[in-house]
Amino acid sequence: MLAICLAMLETEQDQRRFTRLFEAHEKKIYGVALHILGNHTQAEDAAQQTWLKLVQNWDRVSALPWEETEGYTVTVAKNCAMDILRTERRTVAFPEDWDPPAPEDHQDEYDYLVSLIRALPESYRRILELKCVEEESNQEIARRMDLKESAVSMRVLRGRKMLREQLEKEGYFHDAV
User: Fold this and answer.
1) DSSP 3-state of 37
2) Are the beta carbons of 87 and 40 closer than 8 angstroms?
3) Is the dihedral of CA 157, 159, 161, 167 positive or negative?
4) Residue 25, SS3 per DSSP
5) What are the phi and psi torsion angles at 106 (to 5°)?
6) How many alpha carbons lie under 13 Å from residue 165 in its C-beta half-sphere?
7) pLDDT in tens, 39-80
8) How far is CA 45 from the centre of its chain?
9) Greater confidence, 100 or 78?
10) Using one digit for the tens of pLDDT, what is the confidence trace for 131-151?
11) What's the rounded Cα separation, in Å, for the pair 117 and 13?
12) DSSP assignment letter at 130
């Protein structure tokens, strides 16, 4: 990771200062991420994201007095770890072997619709699973996924549009989607 970050810096002076920063705070950043995430792999990801963010904002970081760099790097590490937690919370999907409840008649059509929902991009798929299959309200989905209700409404609208387009492409024309 250090080699990648150093390659992104232009001057030797910046590379030396970054190396010093890396050696001084590497374990601390990993420890902060591990404390927040509780998972070694995710903590490593958060630490790598932290170093990349620090090098991307190197002008700001290098302008800090040395005494303030620890606080700054810890804050960036905490934010990266929290971003991973938020992403994980939003994208927890149903297991692949999940068998959704289905109406007894029209089972084939229902199964087909569920397969189309599962083929959508993750951000729309999860919301439509909750909306169409679990029959949750936008407010319930927003609370469950830590999103604004307006964001849920927009994703439901766009996801349904994607489903409608897919169904029309395959020859189905119906207003029920």
Assistant:
1) helix
2) no
3) negative
4) helix
5) 65, 35
6) 7
7) 899 999 999 999 999 999 888 988 999 899 999 999 999 999
8) 12
9) 78
10) 877 788 888 888 888 889 899
11) 53
12) I
